[in-house]
Structure to design on (386 residues):
């Protein structure tokens, strides 16, 4: 086990619980401005939590307040907590909002791990680089560098290709890693399911790519996740240490997780730790890149004693557009729950739907609408075209 993994943890006692009067002040600070649904989720007893949060219902507020509640009310040390997000921007916002809680006592939230899936995996691979089969100075391939490596291999293998085919090879390698498949475990069926014919020699390309990355100490973004999962599966002592280290795991936007990301969360969660996931199956739009909102249903099944909470009070939109959204999404046969978003901003403006016969007519119609509003006193700076 990497020494850094042990040395990074000091001050191993639980966080001190506030005195009675201070506890009331903490509760008021964390719960006072929340609605009933939010308050119930934030103050729930420690355990595995599934929070199904509709659009604009304050899920980030709930997640950050939950962190404060666990530290201040339940006595969980900040260094025993891990929060996983999907973008660097979301991670930065979460860090800022947690640090800005302004609670009595001022716990050191800088010791909490907060980051994207890839950032968390990279941190683990640096700590356990030897166990992961890497050296300390491994290089992370960005999109362009990865493209250049595959392009070089295609030339070396004398495989004719266009830019379109190069994109197909890159996408295929990513999809196979997302499925947890190494080159040695792939079959012709795996390749054909991705649309690759025998003439494309994809097995040679994937195998050469893996060998090149291993030889040159390179790691791409998909590799970070796959290698981290393999690390936790191959080394029980590493897994046991992380189970102890991360007593509370919080994952945002869970409807966007892939099979590999779900596998990673399951491996991080120990028998005595607790996992909280926040997501909305109605906002799942990334299936084309491997995300699967059914992971929320799998969480219900795979994690013991899951407590479920629904956030349905929307703070972003008027009720008219929410009613339309509720009506449309109700047609989906695969929803986890029948959420009915309730707005807090009044009825709002009417929704207008215009059918355009072709793109040129659509563009002309939009321009005319903008001109009409501008003439009525609305500045162009207040308009947005999606």
């Amino acid at each position: 086990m990497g020494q850094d993994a042990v040395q990074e943890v000091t001050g191993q006692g639980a966080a001190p619980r506030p005195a009675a009067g201070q506890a009331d002040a903490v509760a008021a600070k964390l719960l006072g401005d929340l609605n009933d649904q939010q308050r119930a989720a934030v103050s729930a007893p420690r355990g595995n939590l599934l929070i199904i949060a509709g659009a604009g219902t304050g899920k980030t507020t709930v997640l950050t307040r939950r962190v404060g509640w666990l530290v201040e009310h339940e006595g969980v040390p900040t260094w025993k907590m891990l929060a996983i997000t999907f973008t660097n921007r979301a991670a930065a916002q979460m860090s800022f909002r947690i640090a800005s809680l302004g609670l009595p006592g001022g716990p050191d939230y800088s010791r909490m791990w907060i980051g994207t899936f890839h950032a968390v995996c990279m941190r683990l691979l640096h700590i356990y680089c030897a166990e992961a089969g890497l050296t300390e100075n491994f290089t992370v391939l960005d999109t362009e560098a990865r493209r250049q490596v595959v392009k070089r291999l295609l030339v070396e293998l004398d495989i004719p290709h266009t830019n379109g085919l190069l994109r197909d090879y890159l996408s295929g390698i990513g999809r196979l890693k997302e499925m947890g498949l190494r080159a040695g475990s792939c079959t012709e069926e795996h390749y054909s399911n991705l649309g690759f014919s025998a003439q494309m020699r994809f097995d040679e390309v994937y195998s050469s790519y893996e060998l090149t990355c291993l030889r040159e100490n390179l790691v791409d973004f998909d590799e970070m996740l796959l290698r981290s999962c393999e690390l936790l599966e191959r080394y029980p002592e590493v897994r046991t240490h992380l189970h102890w280290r991360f007593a509370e795991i919080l994952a945002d936007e869970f409807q966007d997780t892939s099979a590999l990301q779900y596998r990673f969360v399951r491996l991080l969660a120990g028998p005595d730790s607790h996992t909280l996931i926040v997501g909305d199956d109605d906002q799942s739009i990334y299936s084309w890149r491997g995300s699967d909102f059914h992971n929320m249903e799998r969480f219900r099944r795979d994690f013991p004693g899951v407590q479920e909470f629904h956030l349905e009070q929307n703070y972003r939109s008027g009720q008219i557009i929410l009613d339309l959204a509720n009506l449309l999404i109700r047609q989906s046969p695969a929803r986890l729950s029948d959420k009915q978003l309730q707005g807090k901003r009044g009825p709002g403006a009417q929704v207008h739907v215009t059918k355009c016969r072709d793109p040129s007519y659509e563009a002309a119609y939009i321009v005319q609408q903008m001109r009409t509003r501008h003439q009525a006193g609305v500045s162009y700076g207040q308009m947005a075209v999606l």
